[in-house]
Amino acid sequence: MRILVTGGAGYVGSHAIRSLARHGHRVTVYDNLSTGHRFLADGFEMMVADLDDAPQLSRALSDIELVMHFAGSAYVGESVQNPRKYFHNNVQNGLALANAALDAGVRYFVFSSSCAVYGTPEKVPIIEGTRCQPVNPYGETKLFFERILDAYSRTYDLRAVALRYFNAAGADESGEIGELHYPETHLIPLALEAAAGLRPPLEVFGNDYPTFDGTCIRDYIHVTDLAEAHALAAEFLQSQTGDAFTALNLGTGGGHSVRQVVAMVEKVSGHSVPRRITERRPGDPPSLVADPARARQLLRWSANRSLEEIVASAWKWLHSGKRQRVSAGAASVGEAPN
Ligand code: UFG
After folding, report:
1. pLDDT in tens, 146-184
2. Are residues 161 and 26 in the same domain?
3. What is the pLDDT of residue 323?
4. CA dist list (Å): 172 to 22, 241, 314
5. CA torsion sign, 75 to 77 to 79 to 85?
6. Strand order of the sheet with strand 217-218?
7. What would the pLDDT profile of 267-304 be if each residue is shown by its tens digit?
């Protein structure tokens, strides 16, 4: 299929485009490089433009059969400070994209959603039928856009899948691409950088949660497993089975506590992780673990890579020449590189 991938120069998007290419699809990346990096989409056709640039968007959509939408803002904390930015980037721009896609006759849509749509669920593992009650603007915007796709797919000739990611982590085995956020806020890269002596001690946000060791539990999923699910979602949409709109959890079905992740970082790196216990981070639910049964059934997919493989691949990426050159360039000009 001819696929337009918004945000294809971002972390998950750059892994997904490789998976789509392996499955024989023709990919065009559409990215404004505000948080993405050009080198992450090296070798792919790319348009550098904003989603609210209507003429460019409609040019990009000509002959496209499927839109895969990763572009958006993804910091929970920032969404609380600056909800306007999140509703603009994730809802308003998403709506512009969905409308332009309809106008261009696009039949299929895959959306990068999040477990943040659930908020703090009463029961884990979480099934897709759980009531969605987001606890921050980021989650609200993801849910908002899911609802747009749901309504559009009931009325128009559009089939859509929303993929609700749990905690994406790790890097492609090539060592050529991986996670590169400015600022970095995620546990695994922060713990690895602390182990490598590249940043101050890791802050463990709370050890008094109602979990087996007092720290929060999350479902960490290897970004390569996540990427593969996108290629399978494209095939699922084409197969015309199931509903016009489908939401699917993408997780492993297993959880790890912050302490367990830190122990794995120490095992893989061979270094201790300097750390201190601090206050809870507002808005962190104690435990978020996916029930991935529906994705397993409909996509014939499962996340097979272990926490050890996730951490080992992220450690390799931290030391890759590619990442180091890009980070050094960023430091010398004092900004995030593209
Ligand atoms: N954590 C720390 N110290 C840190 C960073 C994180 O203790 O410096 C803890 C957090 O409290 C949390 C766990 O590590 O318990 C994982 O935190 P991340 O920031 O890596 O990831 P989140 O679970 O907060 O975020 C993920 C996705 C978001 C999504 C959110 C839904 O990255 O996109 O889940 O809650 F919105």
Report:
1. 999 999 999 999 999 999 999 999 999 999 999 998 899
2. yes
3. 86
4. 14, 31, 9
5. negative
6. 256-257, 217-218, 287-288
7. 999 999 999 999 999 889 999 999 999 999 999 999 99
Residue 236 lies in a domain: yes
Residues 206 and 125 occupy one common structural domain: no
d(CA 332, CA 245) in angstroms, rounded, equals: 46
Q: In angstroms, what is the span from residue 187 Cα to ligand 1's centroid?
A: 6
Quick one: which atom of ligand 1 is closest to the CA of 190? 8
Range of the domain at 64: 2-169+222-250
The residue whose CA is least distant from atom 27 of ligand 1 is 167
Q: Answer yes or no: is 214 within a domain.
A: yes
Per the domain annotation, does 298 fall within a domain? no
Residue 115 near ligand 1, beta carbon < 6 Å: yes
Ligand 1 binding pocket includes 298 (Cβ within 6 Å): no
Number of domains in the chain: 2
* Residue of 284, 287, 288, 289 with the most ligand 1 atoms within 8 Å of its CB, for mutation: 284
**Catalytic residue check, 165:** no
Name which residue sits closest to atom 36 of ligand 1, judged by CA.
116
Per-residue pLDDT of 37-55, as tens digits, reads 999 999 999 999 999 999 9
Cα 86 to Cα 120, 205, 325, distances in angstroms: 20, 24, 31
> At 279, which CATH number?
3.90.25.10
pLDDT value of position 337 = 45
Supply the residue whose CA is at minimum distance from atom 4 of ligand 1: 187
Whether 161 and 199 share a structural domain: no
What distance in Å separates the CA atoms of residue 100 and residue 121, rounded to the nearest whole number?
Answer: 34
Q: Determine the residue of 80, 167, 220 to mutate for testing ligand 1's pocket, defined as the one with the most ligand atoms within 8 A of the Cβ atom.
A: 167
Q: What is the CATH number of the domain that holds 165?
A: 3.40.50.720
- Residue nearest to ligand 1 atom 29, measured at CA: 116
pLDDT at residue 117, rounded to an integer:
98
Catalytic residue among 138, 152, 165, 209: 138
